[in-house]
Specification:
The chain is of the alpha/beta class and 276 residues long. 47% of the residues lie in helices and 13% in strands. Strands 1-2-3-4-5-6 form a six-stranded parallel sheet.
Length: 276
């Protein structure tokens, strides 16, 4: 396991999915620049290849980045075997698809030897249970399965259609003291669109975005990184010190503005920008 504390370990921004039945891709995913890898035993793996995916995961060994495993959903023929395997592996967390039951998460946590859980919310029932999922035993971060959620509702996979669900995940995470949730995927590999989606997610309060291809990693990281002008502004604000409410460059600066400035510098640090 990583030596970082739990909160820092799960504050990844651009986790990359990789199919478990393609073991040659697992090491490549870890070297892609993604700050976490999600070895997928579920949607990316055909029913006939589930055992091969488990074998690929077991053979991969410890990766140099935060490692999650997306198991098959509870109630599928593969769930129990996935859980039994993952319990004995050196991975950081288990991602549960179609998450909507906090009691199930608690039972999983008891079986997984201290491994964290990342509930993937993909349904109306999951959104309704989001606050319970966020506070369930073992939960480290919420993630949004936006494509499946849109299908469950019969809604379009667009920003306006999914805004309310995204807002609920942000609130649930904040109330539980978790890092901002991880947004769903962008289905195109076009860099500008991926970066714009990541920036939109950040504006709502998300702190990461699922990636389905290595080409999406860099645009996602850019989307969550502050602009240089934001970093410069944040430094100026914090340089004012604790002077109460003061005017700076035509704007009132108080405690809330300073908190925003600190958040910007934290994002800059995570993005590898100079924050000093």
């Amino acid at each position: 396991m990583s030596a970082a504390g739990p909160a820092e370990r799960f504050a990844f921004t651009a986790p990359l999915f990789v199919p478990g039945d393609r073991p040659e891709r697992i090491a490549k995913a870890a070297a892609s620049g993604a700050d976490a890898v999600i070895v997928d035993l579920e949607d990316a793996v055909a029913a006939t290849a589930k055992q091969a995916a488990r074998a690929g995961l077991a053979a991969a060994g410890r990766l140099p980045v935060v490692t999650l495993v997306r198991v098959n959903g509870h109630g599928t023929p593969w769930f129990e075997d996935d859980l039994a395997l993952v319990a004995g592996l050196d991975v950081d967390a288990v991602m549960l698809p179609k998450a909507d039951d906090a009691a199930l998460l608690a039972r999983m946590a008891a079986r997984l030897s201290g491994k964290a859980l990342v509930p993937l919310v993909e349904s109306a029932a999951g959104i309704a249970a989001a606050r319970a999922l966020a506070t369930a035993e073992g939960s480290a971060r919420l993630a949004f399965g936006s494509v499946d959620f849109a299908a469950d509702l019969g809604a379009a996979h667009t920003r306006p259609a999914l805004a309310a669900a995204r807002g609920e995940l942000v609130l649930a995470s904040r109330l539980a003291g978790l890092a901002g949730p991880v947004d769903g995927v962008t289905l195109t590999l076009e860099a500008d669109e991926t970066e714009a989606d990541a920036r939109f997610a950040w504006e709502l309060g998300f702190a990461g975005k699922l990636c389905i291809h290595p080409r999406q990693v860099a645009p996602v990281l850019r989307g969550f990184a502050p602009a240089e002008r934001e970093v410069a502004w944040a430094r100026e604000v914090l340089a004012l010190g604790d002077a109460g409410a003061v005017m700076h460059d035509g704007q009132m600066v108080d405690g809330a503005i300073q908190a925003r400035a600190r958040n910007i510098l934290h994002r800059a640090e995570r993005a590898g920008m100079t924050a000093a």
